[in-house]
Write a structure and sequence with these properties.
The protein has about 240 residues and is of the alpha+beta class. It has 2 domains: about 140 residues, Jelly Rolls, CATH 2.60.120.10; about 90 residues, Winged helix-like DNA-binding domain superfamily/Winged helix DNA-binding domain (Arc Repressor Mutant, subunit A). The chain is built from 9 helices and 11 strands. The strands form 3 sheets. Strands 1-8-3-6 form a 4-stranded antiparallel β-sheet. A 4-stranded antiparallel β-sheet has the order 2-7-4-5. The protein has a 3-stranded antiparallel β-sheet with strand order 9-11-10. Strand 10 and strand 11 form a beta hairpin. Helix 6 packs across helix 7, helix 6 crosses helix 9 and helix 7 crosses helix 8. The protein is elongated and about 55 Å long. Bound molecules: adenosine-3',5'-cyclic-monophosphate. The site of adenosine-3',5'-cyclic-monophosphate has 15 residues, from strand 5, helix 3 and helix 5.
């Protein structure tokens, strides 16, 4: 992975949505408080229950936010990518880390130590507004996932995840089909829907046989028929 240098980071920070309402001096001030850290793929940044000592902004790469079961099973709450942030909750509420964060690709972060973050954030009301907006979006998504866990069966949850991934990849809602280019293993999908890998493999095979999805090289094509399938299923369950 190419290392990013000071001037590039400073320029890049001005384009990050979280910092978009700050002026150049405020961004420079936050940058002066921080350090950059690089981690390889599959590196644990911290574990749920750890004390919160820093805030992280992703400069490059990707992480997953996960809840880990005592038996090693994991539930993926979210994937976060370049421009996203994490680690703010334990700083705002002085509790332990609410989830574990693991890199899913080589990654580079801007890291602001706890005290510096807390000292400065209260002087930056526009930044607080941005935090609130992101919290609301994350809570909305989490509420929806919680509803799916309680109200849909596993076929419905897998269909929903595939359609969500397909549409966040930039597909138009009214298209006939969408392409998921993000590479996910069956285990990743299982960890997103709260099922075993074997169950997910069986559901995906059924979807393939029914023509709802088609594997094309390393990507997956999702057909509109999967949306209809989910609509019918949701009517049945809700
Ligand atoms: P913190 O609790 O400090 O450490 C874990 C981080 O994961 C948390 O801060 C948030 O930044 C992030 N996080 C926790 N829950 C979610 C969620 N449901 N969606 C996205 N990110 C989350």
């Amino acid at each position: 992975m190419k290392q990013i240098f000071y001037s590039e980071i400073s320029t890049y920070l001005k384009t990050v949505p979280l910092f978009s309402a700050l002026d150049d001096d405020e961004i420079e001030m936050l940058y002066a408080l921080s350090k950059t850290r690089r981690y390889p793929k599959e590196n644990i940044i911290f574990l749920q229950g750890d004390s919160g000592d820093a805030f992280y902004l992703i400069l490059n790469g990707e992480v997953k936010v996960v809840l880990l079961g005592a038996d090693g099973r994991e539930y993926i709450l979210s994937f976060l990518k370049k421009g996203d942030f994490f680690g703010e909750m334990a700083l705002f509420d002085s509790e332990a880390r609410s989830a574990s964060v693991v890199t899913t690709a080589d990654a580079e972060f801007l890291v602001i130590p706890r005290q510096a973050f807390l000292n400065h954030i209260s002087h930056l009301p526009m930044l607080l507004t941005k935090f609130l907006s992101t919290f609301s979006k994350r809570l909305r998504k989490t509420d929806e996932r919680l509803g799916d866990l309680a109200l849909l069966n596993v076929q419905g949850r897998v269909a929903k995840i595939l359609l969500t991934l397909a549409q966040t990849a930039g597909g138009l809602p009214r298209a006939e089909k969408w392409r998921i280019s993000k590479r996910l293993t069956h285990q990743d999908i299982a960890s997103m829907v709260g099922a075993t890998r074997e169950t997910v493999t069986r559901v995906l095979n059924d979807f393939k046989q029914q023509g709802h999805i088609v594997a094309e090289g390393k990507t997956l094509i999702v057909h509109k028929s999967l949306k209809h399938y989910l609509e019918v299923l949701s009517d049945h369950f809700y």
